[in-house]
Structures are given as structure tokens and as C-alpha cells.
Design goal:
Elements (H helix, E strand, L loop, with lengths): L1 E10 H10 L2 H6 L2 H4 L3 H18 L12 E3 L5 E3 L3 H9 L4 E9 L2 E9 L12
Antiparallel strand pairs: 1-5, 2-3, 4-5
EC number: 2.7.8.7
InterPro entries: 4-PPantetheinyl_Trfase_dom, 4-PPantetheinyl_Trfase_dom_sf, ACPS, Ppantetheine-prot_Trfase_dom
Family: Belongs to the P-Pant transferase superfamily. AcpS family.
Length: 127
């Protein structure tokens, strides 16, 4: 059952300017492992965080830094959620966050689907 969807696009140049204006921003938003990545990858990860918040309908006591992104062995991105974040998502009815990222023409776009537990089947209708 889909609980929510979210999409966000980040302009790389604008993101770089934001990081230059506020150097502490990267530390507030990203894990130490993520901060070692290129600015292009950071822009995509920021878009992923924003899309997740949109899919959830808000932060609900979480922070953007609670949504780190990692790459699987095959290259697919996924959120690397802590047990505490996973527990909070479960309270919100979210079992899984699905993530897709793309980069093109100086933009990074993320799409997130928040999936809940499978809905119980509807009772049969009596004619």
C-alpha cells in the first residue's frame, strides 16, 4: 500500500552556492561518509531527503540527516536508515522507502515512494 510519494529536483549550481555561503550546511545535512562524495552526488542526496520528507508529509520529529543514501553493489541507491528512524517510520505506517535518483543537465532529481504494510483484503461484497 502506498502511503505517499515525493519528488524533488536540485540545481547543482544553486546547491554549490548554498554550500559556499554556509559551509556548515554540509555537516548538518550529510553523514561523514557522504561528505566525501562529489557535489553532484550530494545534490542528489539532498533531493532524496527532500523527496522523502514530501512522501512522508513532513519530518515528524526526524531530521534531514536521518535519511542518508548509499549505493547498493549493483549501483541502485537506497536509504541507509538507522533503527531509530526505521522505528519512527513504522509508527507513521511506513515499512519501506523506495528511492530513484537521476542526474542530467546540471540537475539532480529524486523520486521516493513510501510504502506501508500490505492492506488487508476487502471483505466480499454481498449482492
Amino acid at each position: 500500500m502506498i502511503v505517499g510519494i515525493g519528488v524533488d529536483t536540485v540545481d547543482h549550481a544553486r546547491f554549490v552556492r548554498a554550500l559556499e555561503r554556509a559551509p556548515a550546511l554540509a555537516e548538518r545535512l550529510f553523514t561523514s561518509d557522504e561528505r566525501a562524495l562529489s557535489v553532484t552526488s550530494l545534490a542528489a542526496r539532498f533531493a532524496a531527503r527532500e523527496a522523502a520528507v514530501k512522501a512522508l508529509g513532513g519530518l515528524h520529529g526526524l531530521a534531514l540527516r536521518d535519511f542518508p543514501v548509499r549505493r547498493e553493489a549493483g549501483g541502485s541507491p537506497e536509504f541507509d536508515l538507522s533503527p531509530a528512524t526505521t522505528a519512527r517510520l513504522a509508527q507513521l505506517g511506513v515499512a519501506t522507502l523506495h528511492l530513484s535518483l537521476t542526474h542530467d543537465a546540471g540537475l539532480a532529481t529524486a523520486f521516493v515512494v513510501a510504502e506501508g504494510a500490505v492492506a488487508p483484503p476487502s471483505p466480499p461484497q454481498i449482492p
